[in-house]
Specification:
208 residues, 6 helices
Length: 208
């Protein structure tokens, strides 16, 4: 059984027995995880969130069971149409034995990929914390330089660290702006969640 088939089997097991599907593959690309999310949505789930968690900064993607009648009908139709899904047989929207989207699924997987990346970039960077560090680090290094006398080492750090932190924020903001444009073009709408995070939602549920 290939690695892709193992991932598919794990998703199908979760979908059959849980109300929340969690995807976390440390070395997988966002598109690979998005393909798995697409499969879960085909069986009655909907994308909920993506976060970068833990010391190793692992991407975690969450889907919740969709109780809408259309989602239930979709799940039943796919269960009948793909009886060997998760057991080495074909699954909705993917080339056999792989997580490569078929042409009819490519646009939806692309939107899921953008949603996952947007949410993940938002959770990976604590903007307030980095801004605080950028503001405080020059004073800290200056104080250490005065105390230790190591001006040649610490004064450059007082300049370089804030530049690095602010640069990281700009890069993250640029990536999210590009993803936001992609999501807006796909018909997604910006919202604020309960934690105040800016996110995007699809106006109509996507799925097979």
């Amino acid at each position: 059984m290939s690695l892709a088939e193992q991932h598919i089997t794990a998703v199908m097991r979760q979908a059959a027995s849980q109300d929340v599907v969690e995807l976390h593959h440390p070395f997988a690309k966002a598109q690979t995880v998005a393909s798995l999310a697409y499969i879960a949505e085909a069986y009655g789930f909907r994308y909920a969130d993506a976060r970068v968690e833990g010391e190793k900064k692992t991407l975690h993607v969450y889907l919740v069971r969709d109780h809408d009648d259309r989602a239930r009908q979709r799940a039943a139709a796919n269960a009948a149409a793909f009886p060997q899904a998760g057991a080495g047989g074909p699954v909705p929207g993917m080339q056999l034995g792989t997580l490569t989207p078929l042409p009819e699924a490519q646009s939806q997987v692309a939107v899921l990929t953008a949603l996952i990346r947007y949410d993940a970039f938002g959770s990976a960077v604590d903007r307030k914390k980095l801004l605080t560090m950028a503001a405080a680090s020059p004073l800290l290094f200056l104080l250490l330089a005065v105390v230790t006398g190591k001006y040649l080492v610490l004064l450059p750090l007082a300049v370089l660290l804030p530049v690095f932190l602010l640069g990281a924020l700009r890069v993250n903001a640029a990536k999210r702006a590009k993803l936001a444009a992609q999501l807006t073009a796909a018909g997604c709408m910006p919202v604020r969640d309960q934690q105040g995070r800016e996110r995007y939602v699809r106006p109509v549920h996507h799925g097979v």
